């Protein structure tokens, strides 16, 4: 058992949340009981995840996508009310980390996906104060179709691959999970062989063909499953508590 405040303080410091100008509040979003024995981790604090948390009798839910996003309606009504009421009625805390969990060099979504794909991270790039996109190398160049197959095996879904040369060799890889298709231009300028993200926009097709830099859309949910699990492991080791990951079927 550990104190909620101790977990929150450690996680906030570990992820260095004060560095980020994010689209949502990072850290404790809904306060439950003061003590934590069991955590449920998930990508998004959906109703299905919260129902699973109630069923498993956990004290805290920790996610990448929480609530109170910039620009959304402020009243707690409708679907938002139902989810927050589920937490409050069952004395469950909600902890959420967005950009800090993307960017962390060890348990971040980008770092974890790079590790799973066999990419040795060398640097970061991208616009803004915090450069979110990781860049790295494979141990040896491989044909692009084999790298695409590697992405499919890791994520468990068929990725969308766009490229002019299906037989090109891939050595350098840029990765930014989730909805980071707008960083593709930065990846082209940086000079990677292929860019991996979660989502895709219409213009990414033309950019890939014209630049010669391949593009992979591997799913927003699918690419962001790994950071929250890694952070859950960190908290388990630090506080001797239990953390289970809750997976849902999400094709996006």
Task: Give an overview of the whole structure.
This protein is 37% helix and 25% strand. Helix 2 runs parallel beside helix 3 and helix 5 packs across helix 10. The longest helix is centred in the C-terminal third of the chain and has 14 residues. Strand 5, helix 3 and strand 6 form a beta-alpha-beta unit. 43% of the residues are buried. It folds into 2 domains: 101 residues, Udp-n-acetylmuramoylalanyl-d-glutamate--2,6- Diaminopimelate Ligase, Chain: A, domain 1; 119 residues, NIF3 (NGG1p interacting factor 3)-like (Udp-n-acetylmuramoylalanyl-d-glutamate--2,6- Diaminopimelate Ligase, Chain: A, domain 1, 3-Layer(aba) Sandwich). The strands form 3 sheets. The chain has a 6-stranded mixed β-sheet with strand order 7-8-10-11-12-9. It has a 5-stranded mixed β-sheet with strand order 2-6-5-4-13, sandwiched between helices. A two-stranded antiparallel ribbon has the order 1-3. The protein is of the alpha/beta class and 252 residues long. It starts with a strand and ends in a 7-residue tail after the last strand.
């Amino acid at each position: 058992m550990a104190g909620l405040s101790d977990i929150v303080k450690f996680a906030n410091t570990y992820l260095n949340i004060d560095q980020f100008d994010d689209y949502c509040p990072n850290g404790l979003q809904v306060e439950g009981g003061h003590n934590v024995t069991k955590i449920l981790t998930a990508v998004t604090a959906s109703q299905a995840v919260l129902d699973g948390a109630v069923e498993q009798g956990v004290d805290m839910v920790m996610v990448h996508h929480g609530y109170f996003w910039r620009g959304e309606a402020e009243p707690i009504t409708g679907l938002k009310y139902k989810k927050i009421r589920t937490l409050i009625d069952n004395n469950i805390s909600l902890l959420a980390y967005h950009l800090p969990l993307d960017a962390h060099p060890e348990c971040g979504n980008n770092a974890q996906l790079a590790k799973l794909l066999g990419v040795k991270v060398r640097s970061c790039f991208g616009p803004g104060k915090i450069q979110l996109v990781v860049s790295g190398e494979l141990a040896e160049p491989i044909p692009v179709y084999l790298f695409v197959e590697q992405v499919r095996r890791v994520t468990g879904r068929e990725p969308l691959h766009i490229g002019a040369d299906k037989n090109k060799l891939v050595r350098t890889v840029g990765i930014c999970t989730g909805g980071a298709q707008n960083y593709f231009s930065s990846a082209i300028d940086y000079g990677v062989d292929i860019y991996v993200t979660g989502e895709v926009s219409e213009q990414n097709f033309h950019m890939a063909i014209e630049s010669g830099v391949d593009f992979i859309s591997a799913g927003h949910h699918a690419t962001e499953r790994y950071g929250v699990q890694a952070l859950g492991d960190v908290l388990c080791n630090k506080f001797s508590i239990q953390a289970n990951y809750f997976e849902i079927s999400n094709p996006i």
